[in-house]
Amino acid sequence: MSSAKDVTDANFKAEVLENSKPTIVDFWAEWCGPCRQLGPVLDAIAAEHADHVDVVKVNVDDNPAIASQYGITSIPAVYLFANGEVAKTSIGAKPKSALEKEFGEYLNPSA
Amino acid sequence: MSNQPGIFANAVNLNVGGAAQASAASEDARTTSGDDAVHDVVIVGSGPAGYTAAIYTARANLKPVVLAGSVTAGGELMNTTDVENYPGFIDGIMGPDLMNNMQQQAERFGADIRYEDVVSVELDGEIKTVTVEDGTVLRARAVIISTGSEYRKLGLEDEERLSGHGVSWCATCDGFFFKKQNIAVVGGGDSAIEEATFLTKFADKVTLIHRRDRFRASEIMQQRAFDDPKIEILWNTKVTGIQGADKVESLALEDTVTGETSELAVTGVFVAIGSDPRVGLVKDQLELTVDNTIAVDGRSSTTSLPGVFAAGDVVDATYRQAITAAGSGCIAAVDVEHYLAALDS
């Protein structure tokens, strides 16, 4: 799974909604096979695009409130928040190029 | 497996043939990422077919390269729980454990497993090329295509929109979100019943919706569904719509015999109506069957192009079991061995 920073129900507001940088949130759980496979892909995106986005993860098992608030019923779910709002979502484990395309305007804002 | 229709769709055409690689490499840095060797065999896919082919070709000292996929490694079984019908495991084995075992078994004999996605293949000619996502071009004398299958969709207007908001393809991933709720599973095969049974751990009630009047599933699985007080079965019923503003609220149903329509209030729907062979990479280069599987010669894995072999669900419209895929992977490995031996003699 991803080595991204863990965000919880308690600090989601401060870490994600109030983050001045766009933030990609990886909603995941231990028992979700595709989530484990997506982790390293998100790590690579985090490393390559650190100037423009932060990448964090939320364990839905331990933090049901946030997942429920955003109506998440499938994981892995990758949500991009900008200015406190959901800006983009992507459901399922996808290869790096697919995610880079979906989130492109935030990963490479000048491009 | 979670729904990943786009995996092989985002192909980039680098237009680099085997012979042209050296000159192209100086022009395009993307192709220089160093794999100059001509491999004996490259295996595309890493389900039971791909890994079994890897075990056999590695033991034949062919040093297989397995392109396992960045997020699909291990294939469909990675999203299952107990596999009870794979011979050799008295008490069954978890799908992901079985696949991890196969992977390690292949690596023990020297298989080179890479977690990369293939974006294009050139299967014609004596040296085939396989291009992965970062632009690396692998050259090989033989290629085994074992790309498996991908989940079939209902093809309904709101399916995509509500995907992730009540519409799901992965019970083991998403069952958790439906605790104490009423949900539906669509389908009538083993996987539909396995999902329905699994989901009763979380849901209050699971309605199993099947368009025929009997299941295709094995007897033992059917009996489990019949015996489960949380499972209700709707026979001769098809789903004609998924409704809900921003999450699933109900399904529109139609009786396939009487034509009568009805509505079923559910908060989730798991789609398990089968899968289609994943032939996107090769469909313009290899002959396919009427079932859209890769055509192979008789019981062999030989495709319409020499040096190209196919195994697993991508050649199988009928059986599609872990064990048949594994057997098929073995056949492909032995065919590759014979093919290369004949070339060398």
TrEMBL record, chain A:
**An example Gene Ontology CC term for this record:** cytosol
Q: Identify a single GO molecular function assigned to this protein.
A: protein-disulfide reductase activity
Family annotation (InterPro entries): Thioredoxin, Thioredoxin-like_sf, Thioredoxin_CS, Thioredoxin_domain
Q: Hey, where's the site called Deprotonates C-terminal active site Cys on this chain? A: 26
User: In what residue span(s) does the Thioredoxin domain sit?
Assistant: 1-108
Site residues by UniProt (Contributes to redox potential value): 33-34
Q: Where are the active-site residues found? A: 32, 35
Pfam families the record matches: Thioredoxin
For this UniProt record, the keywords arranged alphabetically read as follows: Disulfide bond, Electron transport, Redox-active center, Transport
Q: Which domain of life is it from?
A: Bacteria
Coiled-coil positions are: none
Disulfide-bonded cysteine pairs: these are: 32-35
One GO term of the biological process aspect: cell redox homeostasis
Q: Which family does it belong to?
A: Belongs to the thioredoxin family.
The entry's protein name is: Thioredoxin
Lineage in the entry? Bacteria, Bacillati, Actinomycetota, Actinomycetes, Micrococcales
Automatic annotation (TrEMBL), chain B:
Instruction: State how the cofactor is bound.
Output: Binds 1 FAD per subunit.
Which one GO biological process term can you cite for this protein?
removal of superoxide radicals
Q: Which organism is it from?
A: Kocuria marina
Q: What is this protein called?
A: Thioredoxin reductase
One Pfam entry for this protein is Pyr_redox_2
* Residue ranges occupied by any FAD/NAD(P)-binding domain in the UniProt entry: 39-329
Q: State the oligomer form and interacting partners.
A: Homodimer.
GO MF annotations in UniProt: thioredoxin-disulfide reductase (NADPH) activity
The cofactors it requires, by name, are: FAD
Membership in a protein family? Belongs to the class-II pyridine nucleotide-disulfide oxidoreductase family.
Organism lineage: Bacteria, Bacillati, Actinomycetota, Actinomycetes, Micrococcales
What reaction gets catalysed by this protein? Answer: [thioredoxin]-dithiol + NADP(+) = [thioredoxin]-disulfide + NADPH + H(+)
- NCBIfam families this protein is in? TRX_reduct
Output the Gene3D superfamilies linked to this UniProt entry. Answer: FAD/NAD(P)-binding domain (3.50.50.60)
What's the EC number here?
1.8.1.9
List, alphabetically, the GO terms of the cellular component aspect: cytoplasm
SUPFAM superfamilies, per database record: FAD/NAD(P)-binding domain
Q: What top-level class of enzyme does the UniProt entry assign?
A: oxidoreductase
**Keyword list, A-Z:** Disulfide bond, FAD, Flavoprotein, NADP, Oxidoreductase, Redox-active center
UniProt-listed PROSITE patterns: PYRIDINE_REDOX_2
